[in-house]
Write a structure and sequence with these properties.
- This protein is of the alpha/beta class and 479 residues long.
- The chain has 2 domains: 47-136 and 283-295 and 327-343 and 354-426 and 439-468, P-loop containing nucleotide triphosphate hydrolases (Rossmann fold, 3-Layer(aba) Sandwich), CATH 3.40.50; 144-272, no CATH class.
- The protein contains 18 helices and 13 strands.
- The chain has helices at residues 3-6, 70-75, 95-108, 124-129, 150-158, 161-187, 193-209, 216-225, 228-234, 240-246, 248-258, 264-267, 293-319, 336-339, 345-352, 378-389, 404-411, 415-423, and strands at residues 8-9, 12-13, 55-58, 65-67, 84-88, 113-118, 133-136, 281-284, 328-333, 360-366, 393-396, 443-447, 455-458.
Length: 479
């Protein structure tokens, strides 16, 4: 063998004039389709991930770009069994940024976004950027009348009888769930079965006597007039003193609401701004103080009911062949703030149940996988724990060690995946100048079911997303 050739390796020749490199720079990574790269054999390999969905960012230690969203992975890639996603992670690591990416880019796919409800106002900019509407709820800002069935009634008039009757029946059921939830939130305990029956009977009487948009003042009038239908379920046997006793708490609460006190500041009176069906929208409840726990929870419940009610109307029109159904992405952030209160979790399914799930994607967001375990009722806890386990996609940003045991049971995350997630929570050193940001920001693990390995990736911002659109710390800016 030639001695000179023996001195040559990948860095060059190990002899004078051999042009040897002491430092080898990593070559640039380029990405293209197999059709465009046909015939190029050196240094080519497949990306190994789905090509369907919203581009999120580069996959760790790979040339591939993760493309992912719940509807694309359900409908086109057929990777998941339901068009749903669950986002977990500590504050400030990228959960909201991922939601905004989906809001903005899925609009380009023709999929509007419904944010139900925005607790911090951090998605208002993205929804407005795609031409969506903002509906504000809060004391002195905007009201939402949960009794109003005007749109469902109008839709039923143009639908075939069977579909129209079904739409109205489900709308009334959803309304009843909202009413009972508001009473439970206000009282701090679940209404008794008799109280629920009296409310349901009173609402039926109200529907028969009120033309147009009914309000809580109309419901109060029905309760006070003591119609036979309400007395029947009150089981007062003609004793008005007994009737007044068993309806006293309901009447007192309605009086309080009608005088615009407590929850009545937001839910008594006519709706100030309606959602426009088929259009992106965000219900902004960020002006309700965090300490106002009951009103925030009530605003979330009402937002869910109204949003899912709009989608149900679209389903009814599509089923009747009157219009083509448009897919929708629903975003529910920190839903645990409402579900943790008495009586809300049990009614959540009634509020969010849809006849046809095709074309409806749902994204839920939380800080902790252990949130369901905070629910006191065992049945509520079992139902809530299913949200994570049944989600088609789970996106996990940095999480503490305490979360790993639960995730290992639910998602079968491996030791390496657990180390990766906990490592993302490690802050920079004490001597950092802050210019690089938190090292775990934007980095996450995408898991599509317990039997597939997680995909570590880094969410990368586009120029249009930078600036105020993705700034969730505006109040902390130094002058």
């Amino acid at each position: 063998m030639n001695k000179t050739k023996a001195l040559i390796d990948g860095r060059g020749g190990r002899f004078p004039g051999g042009g040897r490199f002491g430092y080898m720079q990593d070559p640039d990574w380029l990405r293209a389709t197999a059709q465009d790269l046909a015939g190029f054999t050196p240094w080519v390999r497949g990306g190994g991930v789905s090509k369907y969905g919203v581009p999120l960012g580069p996959i760790k230690d790979s040339v591939g770009i993760l493309q992912c969203d719940p509807i694309s992975w359900f409908e086109r890639a057929r990777l998941i069994s339901s068009p749903s996603a669950y986002i977990l992670g500590l504050n400030g690591l990228g959960k909201s940024s991922l939601i905004r990416r989906w809001i903005l880019m899925m609009a380009g796919f023709g999929v509007p976004a419904l944010v139900l409800a925005d607790l911090k106002g951090e998605h208002v900019g993205a929804v407005k950027a795609i031409g969506g509407q903002e509906v504000q709820l809060g004391r002195g800002l905007g009201r939402l009348n949960v009794l109003d069935l005007t749109e469902a009634i109008e839709a039923a008039k143009v639908l075939p009888t069977v579909q129209g009757d079904h739409l109205l029946a489900t709308a009334r059921g959803r309304r009843q769930a909202m009413i009972e939830s508001l009473f439970a939130i206000d009282w701090g305990h679940v209404p008794s079965s008799r109280e629920c029956s009296m409310l349901a009977a009173a609402v039926e009487v109200m529907d028969q006597t009120i033309v147009g948009e009914a309000e809580f003042s109309d419901l109060l009038q029905v309760i006070r007039s003591a119609p036979d239908a309400v007395q029947e379920v009150a089981v007062n046997r003609g004793d008005m003193a007994e009737y007044q006793r068993v309806t006293a708490e309901i009447e007192s609460t309605l009086v309080n609401w009608c005088k615009r006190r407590g929850l009545g500041e937001v839910f008594a009176g006519k709706t100030t701004a309606r959602l426009v069906r088929g259009k992106s929208a965000v219900i902004n409840v960020s002006h309700i103080d965090e300490d106002d726990v009951r009103l925030r929870a009530a605003a979330m419940v009402a937002s869910w009911g109204v949003g899912f009610g709009q989608i149900a109307i679209g389903h009814a029109y599509a089923a009747a062949g009157l219009e083509q159904y448009q897919p929708v992405m629903i975003y529910q952030d920190e839903m645990w703030q409402a579900i943790a209160l008495p009586g809300v979790a049990a009614r959540y399914n009634s509020l969010t149940r849809l006849d046809r799930h095709k074309g409806v994607g749902r994204v839920m967001c939380s800080h902790s996988a252990g949130d369901p375990r905070t629910l006191s009722n065992q049945a509520d806890r079992a139902m809530a724990e299913g949200f994570l386990a049944k989600s088609g996609i789970v996106m996990m940003f940095g999480l503490p060690e305490s979360e790993m045991e639960h995730l290992e049971k639910t998602l079968r995350i491996t030791g390496a995946e657990a180390d990766y997630l906990t490592g993302l929570t490690t802050p920079p050193g004490y001597d950092t100048d802050g210019s690089q940001g938190h090292p775990g920001r934007g980095k996450a693990l995408c898991k599509a079911g317990p039997n597939l390995p997680g995909i570590p990736f880094e969410l990368q911002f586009l120029p249009a997303e930078k600036g105020d659109l993705n700034d969730t710390n505006r109040l902390w800016k130094m002058k």
